[in-house]
Amino acid sequence: MRDALLWASRNETLKTHVPRWGFVQRALRQFMPGERLEDALQAATMLAGNGVTSMFTKLGENLTDVAQADAVVEHYLGAFERIAALGLDTEISVKPTQLGLDLNLEHAARGLETLAAKADEMGNWLWIDMESSEYVQPTIDLYKRVKASHHPVGICLQSYLHRTPQDIKDLIPLQPGIRLVKGAYKEPASVAITKRAENDEAFFRQAAELLSTDGVRLALATHDLTLLDRLEVVARVAGRAKDSYEIQMLFGIRMEDQYRYAAKGYAMRDLTAYGEQWYPWYVRRLAERPANLAFVARNVFARN
Ligand code: FDA
Predict the structure, then answer these.
(1) pLDDT tens-digit profile of 120-174?
(2) Alpha helix segments (H runs only) across the chain
(3) Annotated catalytic residue: which of 102, 129, 167, 270?
(4) How much is the pTM?
(5) S-S: 52 plus which of 47, 58, 107, 291, CB 3.0-4.6 Å?
(6) Residue 248 phi/psi, 5° resolution?
(7) Any catalytic annotation for residue 179?
(8) Is 53:90 a contact under the CB 8 Å cutoff?
(9) From the CB of 133, is ligand 1 less than 6 Å away?
């Protein structure tokens, strides 16, 4: 099922037709407050009322020309302003391909630098998402370049990649921001761990090492409560305060747990996606948990 959904997320015909189906749009509302920045801002205000901070990402991948990348940069510059005007603790997370990584590396680097400088100016923070494995090295290279300017920037690392333990070692001296995730793409066994249980253990080991390391802004981005419980013990043994690292989850997933973590004094941040190009992102969410298909199916019968 996971493989079929990951295939569907890349299929051009499905990409064109599925987003028009009303029941899919209704099911989508579980994971996305809306397509506009203002919808995400409203959600962030609601989350803040529950003690949960947020992080925005505008959906859209693999651009066809650099003008589209410039539009993305402009959009996020405006978003930083709106966030500051509303006094929200909302950070921004970007995909390097949205900044034109596929088209022109230097252009993407300039876009990233512009956004990182803006984050700095606004007292905010910029995160860099990690995409499929062919982008990992250029993304880490870009991260190192922006980090050299001392801007507040973090990078996502995927525990399933065989290379990640070494990437963690290489990045630690830079005092990085690291968001650790299990990894959302279909990767071959030569590149990544393909067994779920083995990846859970890899995540545990990498997170435990990071929890025992000073100078890293650490975010554990997972909905896996068993893992988070085990890591809570590691954090306690390492003498870390509950709010000295972050737990990050996606909007619409385990919301009650997100509020519970915040109420218990953990630094809980919610990643809220918005934008018109939601199809591949949404189908990857389904691939993570095919049981969500039942949710889509239920919405076939929903009224509006
Ligand atoms: P796992 O998939 O094992 O799920 C644990 C439990 O959580 C499940 O049993 C289920 O109960 C619940 N759950 C998980 N996913 C669910 C869903 N979609 N719907 C309902 N329940 C669900 N990946 C990447 O490659 N690059 C990136 O930049 C990012 N960025 C990122 C940021 C943030 C804040 C998060 C939370 C995640 C990402 N990811 C990501 C996605 C990540 O790699 C991973 O695919 C998902 O988080 C799902 O894995 P879990 O760690 O939640 O565990």
Answers:
(1) 999 999 999 999 999 999 999 999 999 998 889 999 999 999 999 999 999 999 9
(2) 2-10, 12-17, 22-28, 37-49, 66-86, 105-121, 136-147, 164-171, 196-211, 225-237, 255-263, 279-288, 292-300
(3) 129
(4) 0.91
(5) 47
(6) -125, 135
(7) yes
(8) yes
(9) no
